[in-house]
Write a structure and sequence with these properties.
By secondary structure, the protein is α/β, with parallel strands linked by helices. It has a single domain, classed as Phosphoglycerate mutase-like (Rossmann fold, 3-Layer(aba) Sandwich), CATH 3.40.50. The protein contains six helices and six strands. The two termini are 19 Å apart.
């Protein structure tokens, strides 16, 4: 099995904004990612996407290229930052620092923890099954990090070490407990 993980383009929001499940469009110029991805993405057998507009826009274009209908899966949504959604990180301040000390178990008010996200990703992976073929997934940085942690058998704290850029590709190959990272942030 091969998992190609694609982060959505930059959202149309201030750079310092906390954007998790807040549904915002892609920033102007996002189509340039589509052209680059068309050149580097091998035709997948299946194409999944988060339901957010910034993911669906990219997945829709890639689906046309590869003659696939993107399968929308809410388990691929970004972390829910609850009451922090749309606020500037600089305004959240010390509260964010307190959650960051134990982000696996602690969540923003009304939101979810990284541990909650891992539960969603575990269910998604289980539903794919071992013989899923070549899968492309358009999603967010949080789910990409969670997929890397789970597939590579890393401790959850390792997820934050992966740089996942907007419109970039990460590829894993293997199955069950024998995954290998082939491409990171290309």
């Amino acid at each position: 099995m091969e998992l190609t993980l694609i982060r959505h383009p930059r959202p149309a929001a201030p750079e310092d904004a906390c954007i998790g499940q807040l549904d915002v469009e892609c920033a102007p110029g996002w189509e340039a990612h589509v052209e680059r991805l068309r050149r580097v993405l091998a035709r997948p057998d299946r194409l999944y996407t988060s339901p957010s507009r910034r993911c669906c826009a990219l997945a829709g274009r890639l689906g046309v290229t590869h003659r696939l209908t993107p399968e929308v899966d809410p388990r691929l949504l970004e972390l829910n930052f609850g009451e922090w959604e749309g606020r500037l990180w600089s305004d959240i301040g010390a509260t964010a620092d307190a959650v960051a000390t134990d982000y696996l178990n602690r969540a923003p008010p009304g939101g979810e923890s990284f541990g909650d996200l891992l539960v969603r990703i575990d269910a998604f992976l289980a539903d794919l099954g071992p013989a899923a073929g070549r899968i492309a997934i358009v999603t967010h940085a949080g789910p990409i990090r969670a997929l890397l942690v789970r597939c590579l058998g890393l401790p959850p704290a390792a997820g934050g070490r992966f740089d996942v850029g907007f419109g970039r590709v990460t590829r894993l190959a293997g199955q069950e407990r024998s995954w290998r990272l082939e491409v990171l942030n290309a």
